[in-house]
């Protein structure tokens, strides 16, 4: 990971972040927008995902094939994604063609046509993805957990790609309306961030961005506010046609914010401690020591609104009761005993190593700079994150564990209805 990033609030309203890296003749540019499923009305849930899937499929001057050909013919790549909290478009290309890449990005930004045939294709792909979740027991458990953990009106209660019924009903007009709502500048919010990393110097990159993004349309981002969680505590038991059983424990957990940063970092450490790889506590105690499961892990996603901490285990149905006792013993231990300093140091080193390894390419460096900026922490937090991980004490982790795991969980228990 390289130092030396610079940020400037450009006169066109874009937050421009740049890091010069001349080691390879490659430049990566990632544009982040405050557009995601947390802003979507229920009836068009998934519209952000469809918009991003089709925005690179043609402009008023280029077809989808021409966009791909222009980028790929010079060794570049382009992709667009959407998540719950933000959306992005990324381009990686030879530095020789950096200006061309920004010109194409601007064409996509200003002049998408959202071809109906491409919308139909992307809707079919999304519908297949939603339907295929019923074939994977982890996805089935998660799709039961989240509406019960958050309440069905919360945006995190459903997939960020939408539901089967909403995706089917979204029209081209809905997509265009949504594009007009977000692809511009809000005078009250820095909602468009462009991060550039690679073999192009700051002034040159800045001039190119201003050349192709001279002015942006005004938009008014929807206000989010505080969205209430309506958790259903206790156990939801279902039977499904899988050969194995499954347990999933879900706890409401803090969002990422300046106010909750110590808790956020503590939970990131706890997640690695519990669920990262074969050296994790869940794997060690549930699988290696007690032979209770086929798989086990945990996750704690970064969210702008309230997040969740999840522990899951795939196992034989005859072992559910003993597995639940073991999981609850592990959780109880987290609330009553500090993690040993030596063990905590190993976990922090693992987080540091994984974080630095994920910065090896210009594309990932550009992504992280924009990611921390869009979350409201500023691009500098890309350097500060690891330092702040090391500042977390055993007492911080214990206090956070008490706060989070003293809450009653939502538990999904899947038993098999499979008959040989």
Please explain how this structure is put together.
Helices cover 44% and strands 18% of the residues. It is built from 15 helices and 11 strands. Strands 1-2-6-3-5-4 form a 6-stranded mixed β-sheet, with helices on both faces. It has a 5-stranded mixed β-sheet with strand order 7-11-8-10-9, sandwiched between helices. It is globular. It starts with 5 loop residues before the first strand and ends with a strand. The mean pLDDT is 95.
Strand order of the largest sheet: 1-2-6-3-5-4
Instruction: Determine the mean pLDDT.
Output: 95
Bulk shape: globular
Proportion in β-strands = 15-25%
Described by strand count, sense and barrel closure, the largest sheet is: 6 strands, mixed
Q: Say how many strands there are.
A: 11
CA distance, first residue to last residue? 53 Å
| Number of helices, counting only DSSP H or I runs of 4 residues or more | 15
Structural class: alpha+beta
Quaternary status = single chain
* Share of residues in helices: 40-55%
Helix-strand sequence: EEEHHEEHHHHHEHEEHHEEHHHHHE
Low-confidence stretches: none
User: For the CA atoms, what is the radius of gyration?
Assistant: 23 Å
Which secondary structure elements does this structure contain, and how are they paired or packed?
Blueprint: E1 6-9, E2 15-20, E3 26-33, H1 47-55, H2 64-72, E4 77-82, E5 87-94, H3 98-110, H4 116-132, H5 137-150, H6 164-169, H7 172-182, E6 192-198, H8 202-212, E7 234-240, E8 245-253, H9 261-275, H10 281-289, E9 295-299, E10 307-315, H11 320-336, H12 341-357, H13 362-374, H14 381-391, H15 394-405, E11 410-416
Parallel strand pairs: 2-6, 7-11
Antiparallel strand pairs: 1-2, 3-5, 3-6, 4-5, 8-10, 8-11, 9-10
